[in-house]
């Protein structure tokens, strides 16, 4: 039997390109994919991008296009930033070479959720920063494409701070702390206040506001998961479907910036997976230091 070569662990290689034209996109993408094709012990590189860009790549690659995977970015980026973490983790767990070796070209849907508002852009940059920690031990090489024609200058500038090698890269924890220092809007005066956020109460409240039964059940389960981090000293409910919000106040400080982002060891999606479950089913899960020394956990369903 021939011994398989052992590769030393290689850190996550997190790159960024900000093309301004189709030609600039190809100038960044083609050498990247060629690098992946030439790397020993790697599966075929994967290009996740706008359909028009995938067509450009197929034409430019010629016969090599058969050795590259192509995924329309609307199929990959179909939800929140936390959903993107889950999709990437799932792919790395089953479609990579030794130590997670694979080349991924990744262009999110900038004219959709990720770049639609400052709030969503900030959430995306938080994910990009934390990716440097979440995937630090994988030998994955990722090229994140920020097309300036769709991403916009503000998002591109912020993204540079989340990618090593850009000249303005920030420590991920420092960048996340900066993003989370922005205050969240306060609950409205007519918000419903609860001493104990029982799951039945949250579900019935959401359903009473017009949320569908399945969504109300998932929202209540997400709140219950967050409450399990307690003890809970109070809860507030407000909003209209689909954007219902629950904010819990916990009598403990939570200082782990990766809580709920690291993929669980169990498959599927179950409430027992803690804040991972909450982040997967809610558009936003925000943690802030509370005035009493505890932690405020705000969950917004959509």
Please outline what is shown here.
The chain is an alpha/beta fold and 302 residues long.
**Largest β-sheet summary:** 5 strands, parallel
Determine the mean pLDDT: 89
Number of domains: 2
Shape: elongated
DSSP helix fraction: 25-40%
Strand line-up in the sheet with most strands: 1-5-4-2-3
Query: Based on the structure given, which CATH architecture of the largest domain is correct?
Result: 3-Layer(aba) Sandwich
Radius of gyration of CA atoms, rounded to a whole number: 21 Å
Distance between the termini: 54 Å
Q: What percentage of the residues does DSSP assign to strands (E)?
A: 15-25%
CATH topology label of the largest domain: Rossmann fold
> Which CATH class of the largest domain applies here?
Alpha Beta
What is the H-and-E element order? Answer: EHEHEHHEHEHHHEHHEEHEE
Task: Write the topology of this structure.
Elements: E1 13-17, H1 22-38, E2 46-49, H2 51-61, E3 69-72, H3 73-76, H4 81-94, E4 102-106, H5 118-134, E5 140-145, H6 148-151, H7 153-160, H8 172-180, E6 192-194, H9 199-208, H10 213-227, E7 232-238, E8 245-250, H11 275-281, E9 284-289, E10 295-300
Parallel strand pairs: 1-5, 2-3, 2-4, 4-5
Antiparallel strand pairs: 6-7, 7-8, 8-10, 9-10
Helix pairs in contact: 1-2, 5-8, 9-10, 10-11
């Amino acid at each position: 039997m021939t011994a398989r070569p052992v590769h030393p662990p290689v850190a996550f290689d997190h790159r960024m390109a900000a093309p301004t034209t189709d030609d600039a996109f190809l100038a960044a993408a083609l050498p990247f994919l060629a690098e992946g094709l030439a790397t020993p012990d790697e599966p075929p590189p994967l290009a996740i991008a706008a359909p028009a860009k995938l067509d450009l790549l197929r034409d430019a690659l010629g016969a090599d296009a058969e050795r590259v995977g192509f995924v329309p970015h609307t199929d990959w980026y179909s939800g929140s930033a936390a959903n993107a973490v889950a999709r990437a983790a799932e792919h790395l767990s089953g479609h990579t070479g030794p130590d997670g070796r694979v080349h991924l070209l990744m262009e999110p849907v900038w004219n959709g959720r990720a770049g639609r508002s400052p709030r969503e852009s900030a959430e995306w940059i938080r994910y990009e920063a934390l990716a440097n920690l979440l995937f630090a031990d994988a030998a994955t090489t990722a090229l994140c494409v920020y097309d300036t024609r769709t991403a916009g200058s503000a998002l591109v500038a912020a993204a540079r701070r989340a990618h090593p090698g850009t000249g303005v890269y920030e420590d991920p924890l420092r960048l996340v702390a900066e993003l989370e220092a922005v205050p969240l809007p306060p609950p409205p005066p007519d918000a419903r206040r609860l001493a104990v956020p029982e799951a039945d109460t949250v579900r019935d409240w959401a359903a009473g506001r017009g949320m569908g039964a399945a969504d109300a059940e998932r929202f209540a389960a997400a709140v219950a998961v967050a409450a399990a981090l307690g003890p809970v000293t109070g809860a507030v409910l407000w909003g209209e479907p689909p954007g219902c919000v629950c904010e819990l106040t916990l009598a403990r400080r939570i200082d782990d910036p990766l809580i709920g982002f690291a993929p669980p060891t169990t498959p599927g999606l179950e409430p027992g997976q803690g804040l991972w479950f909450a982040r997967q089913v809610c558009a936003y899960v925000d943690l802030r230091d509370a005035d009493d020394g505890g932690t405020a956990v705000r969950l917004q369903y959509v």
